[in-house]
Every structure is written in C-alpha cells, then in structure tokens.
Amino acid sequence: MGEASEFRRWDELIPDALGVIFTNLSLQERVTVIPRVCKSWARAVSGPYCWQEIDIEEWSNHCQPDKLDQMLHMLINKSCGSLRKLCVSGLQSETIFTFIAENAGSLRSLRLPRSNMSDLVVEQIAGKLSMITFLDVSYCIKIGASAIEMIGLNCKMLEGLCRNMHPLDTADKPLQDDEAYAIAATMPKLKHLEMAYQRISTSGVVRIFSNCPKLEFLDLRGCWSVNLDNNVSAKGFPKLRVLGPYVLGAYESDGWDDDYSDVSDEFAWDFVDGNEYYVDYDSDGYEGRIEDELEFGFYEGIEDAAMYWPPSP
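RESULT FIELD:
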C-alpha cells in the first residue's frame, strides 16, 4: 500500500498542472497525440496554459499562407488571451496581423520575420502591441522608417528589436539612416538591436549610441559603410558588444551552426479539407475535439532547402 501511494495518477492532476507539464512536449504532440490519450488530458491540453508560448517559425517557412493563417487562428484561440510569446514567419494577409494584435493583451515577445506587412498595417496595429518587450521584423521588406517609428512610439517597453535584412534585398540601395534615426528617437530602453545588412552609415549608428544608453548588443554584420573606432563603443558603453560589420562567411562563428536546424528533419503539417476528428467519451458525454482540418506528417525533404537564409542569432 505504501509503495502504491508513491505514484500519483496523472489523470488526477488538476488541468492547470497538466497544462504546464504538456508545454514541454512538441507542438505536434500537443495537438494530435495528447487529446487522444484520455478525457482529462484532452481537457488540459485545450486550456490556455499549454498555449502561452507558440513557436511555429521553422514550420511556417514551408507552409502555404492560407494554412498558416488557419493554424495561427487555432493556436491563438487556444491561448484564451494569455499568449506571451509568438514566433511565426512569412505572414501575408492583413487580417492575420489584425487578429494577432487583437489577442496581444499579454504578449511580450513577437517574432514576425519575412512577413508581408506594410507601414499602414503597422500603423493600424502598433497601438495594441504596447506590452511587447521584444520584436523581430527582420526581412520585412515592405516596412520602413515610419513603421519603425510607430513601433517605438507605441511599444514603450521594447528592449529588443531585430531588423536584419537579406543582403540581396539591400545590395543596390543607397545609404539610408532614417530607420536608425527612428530607433534612436523612439526606443531609449533598447538593450538588444540587430540591423544586419542594413544600408546605414556611421552617423546613424552613433545616433543610436547616443540615444539608447542601455544598449548591450548591436549586430552590424554586413553594414559595410559603418566605421566605428575603438573609442565609440567604449565611451559610456563598457558592456556593449558590437558584432560586425565584417562577416566571416555564410555562417558566422557566432553560434549559427549550432542553432540552425536541418530543415530536412522538420515535419510539415497538412490540412485535410472537410474532415473532423472526435474522441467520444460516453461516460460523461464529453467530446474531446481535435481541431478541424488538421493532420500532421513528417517532412522528408525540402527542395532548394539550402536557399533559406539562416535565422538571426
């Protein structure tokens, strides 16, 4: 009897506790496996504790826009307003940006690299992102200084910003410090800033130094027109680490090789039109519903996978 009491039955744990435990599982397992185990697990995984952090960035790089929007709607609705972190790449529609903003009351970290947002969209949603402390809008080629300014004016708690660009998108552009000036004017609390391959000058970087006294890390890889002498970062910034502007190769010796996963090992998720899956628990009349039109399969390879630009550090 004593030995048996040492083991707690998992189905007796309260749903909130189970939800926290389930966050250690992969997204695939939470969506397709856990709901099928038993009634209590299905209830727990449908609660908000499992969905406070949503990271589908790797998968979204290889997903059709309409399927990506469906996935985001499903997962964000599960969070019930408690979403704290969202990482997703390649969003295309204005409606999905609006949907994210409407559910951003608790959002602190937002990564939207390679997304098709415009200055107008940012102007419309920035006011609802006031609680975020970290934002990634890298490789978003349709936004500019006005969008960066709106972000800074509305996101007063912002401490981290990623605004990296692909070198092919900036190679032929003239020097422009307008984004650097917007950052300097509106984001005084920044500690972490990434501006790799931006067409900025030394003047823009110095303005950021002057107006962002808490800055600890600045990524200037590929910013070829920036020339900082050793005294610039040392004066008033003893803890500041500046990366670049010179790069060592396609993969820097800064951890990319360790952090970047082989896309051939990723799984792809396919939606099955018109199908629904139910787990019927007759004892309580409970139906643990697996979300509409969703099926997971493993990815065996991506054509031209090597062409994907590696994520920022």
